[in-house]
């Protein structure tokens, strides 16, 4: 058997590339290297602006040319780095050599020694990961999440008055509306989205073991903690003053736990949507040309929600592993985080793919109001809660002498199907006030939804 041409091993880079491609701008190896070049270049510019180590400020044109190294980072730089790393066996050192090489070509060789000065690789890496993860979350993942939330919000308002039978423990229960149920999920996701949006992306810039030792020897008159803080904050990050060689990754653990939490709420959405489709509450809208089964022509399968469910599980498994392992580093440094962090894009990619499927899936279903109404009309016994509660209120008010209203309704309804006529006859014979009796006689399963409609307005 002949070998296939080179193929992507991960489905994210193959079958699902279109859905997750935007993450590659930030969380690929090339995206990481571009950020590394950015940090190295900005450090050189910072040093020259402050005339450190005897340097002089660069002109605006020189700064612009330097920043073009990462702004215009592309195929030639990717190839150059791959070739260099094959020799150095060190990814950050290859980036340093790239910057030095480009400084020579820009006639800036006289400041080449400022490249990577006082830095350990982790100074560059931690800032680069903070920049790339921040951009990926803010520019790609959060907008995708909010797109799903927006679809939920729209459907919540559309279906706010559509009563449906609840199923607590899978059994008929006090009705709700489909709109309110979707609003519950939207509310949960909005809250988590705000937490993710408020993430602090921390950075350290303090040398080999976080002590500024080389810095102080090179120039003992500089306020190195002040320089470190100013430089980190100039990149739009939050300064971490106390670290070992590595930034402690606590912000990453917090972020990945929050995204994993969002995944699990989305997973709940996927399984509930699947169940509502199975119950017939939602009709699936046929998509032109699509096939549901290779042998059963009638089928439309809820594949969007099934795909989302599986990818959310994969994403959370990876994110949970990242959150658990990244916070531990032996003594002042080990390299377990290096390999681990290369999977951040994979973890977010599976989540992004799920979000894409959920957004599409929500757009391919329609509420079947007739099924909802028929289900409610087949379960009048659910009004037992309302009746016993009214009786108890009447007893407290002195308008009834009924003892143990709960037991009375339990005997009437538990494990039974009770129709409208039977309930009406039962209510008519109750020892309660006329107003309460009239309210109960007018009540139907479809009308027993409390404040469901107005609760939708509490969505932000």
TrEMBL record:
InterPro entries: Fumarase/histidase_N, Fumarate_lyase_CS, Fumarate_lyase_fam, Fumarate_lyase_N, L-Aspartase-like, PurB_bact, PurB_C. Its EC number is 4.3.2.2. Residues 14-308 form the Fumarate lyase N-terminal domain. It comes from the Bacteria. PROSITE patterns: FUMARATE_LYASES. Residues 329-449 form the Adenylosuccinate lyase PurB C-terminal domain. This is Adenylosuccinate lyase. It comes from Mycetocola reblochoni. The lineage of its organism: Bacteria, Bacillati, Actinomycetota, Actinomycetes, Micrococcales.
């Amino acid at each position: 058997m002949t070998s296939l041409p080179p193929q992507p091993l991960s489905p994210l880079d193959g079958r699902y590339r279109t859905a997750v491609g935007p993450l590659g701008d930030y969380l690929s190896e090339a995206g990481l290297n571009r950020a590394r070049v950015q940090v190295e270049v900005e450090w050189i510019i910072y040093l020259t602006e402050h005339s450190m180590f005897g340097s002089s400020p660069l002109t605006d044109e020189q700064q612009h040319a330097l920043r073009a190294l990462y702004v215009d980072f592309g195929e030639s730089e990717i190839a150059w780095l791959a070739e260099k790393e094959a020799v150095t066996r060190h990814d950050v050192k290859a980036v340093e050599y790239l910057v030095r090489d480009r400084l020579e070509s820009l006639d800036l060789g006289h400041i080449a020694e400022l490249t990577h000065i006082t830095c350990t690789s982790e100074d560059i890496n931690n800032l680069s990961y903070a920049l790339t993860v921040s951009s990926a979350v803010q520019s790609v993942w959060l907008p995708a999440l909010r797109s799903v939330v927006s679809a939920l919000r729209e459907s919540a308002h559309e279906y706010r008055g559509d009563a449906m039978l609840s199923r607590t423990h899978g059994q008929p229960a006090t009705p709700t509306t489909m709109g309110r149920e979707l609003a519950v999920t939207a509310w949960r996701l909005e809250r988590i989205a705000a937490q993710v949006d408020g993430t602090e992306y921390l950075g350290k810039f303090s040398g080999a073991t976080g002590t500024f030792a080389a810095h102080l020897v090179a120039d003992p008159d500089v306020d190195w903690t002040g320089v470190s803080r100013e430089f980190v904050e100039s990149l739009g990050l939050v300064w971490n003053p106390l670290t070992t060689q590595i930034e402690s990754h606590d912000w990453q653990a917090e972020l990945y736990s929050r995204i994993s939490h969002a995944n699990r709420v989305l997973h709940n959405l996927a399984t509930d949507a699947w169940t509502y489709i199975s119950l017939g509450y939602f009709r699936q809208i046929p998509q032109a040309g699509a096939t549901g089964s290779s042998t059963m022509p009638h089928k439309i399968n809820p594949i969007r929600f099934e795909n989302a469910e599986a990818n959310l599980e994969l994403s959370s498994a990876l994110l949970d592993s990242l959150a658990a392992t990244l916070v531990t580093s032996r003594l002042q440094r080990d390299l377990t985080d290096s390999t681990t962090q290369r999977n951040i894009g994979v973890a977010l990619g599976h989540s992004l793919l799920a979000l894409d499927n959920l957004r599409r899936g929500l757009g391919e279903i329609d509420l079947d109001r007739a099924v909802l109404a028929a289900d409610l009309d087949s379960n009048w016994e659910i009004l037992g809660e309302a009746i016993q509660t009214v009786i108890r209120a009447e007893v407290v008010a002195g308008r009834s002498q009924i003892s143990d209203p709960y037991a009375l309704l339990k005997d009437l309804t538990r494990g039974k199907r009770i129709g409208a006529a039977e309930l009406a006859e039962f209510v008519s014979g109750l020892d309660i006030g006329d107003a309460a009796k009239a309210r109960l006689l007018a009540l139907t399963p479809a009308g027993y939804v409390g404040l469901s409609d107005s609760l939708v307005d509490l969505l932000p």
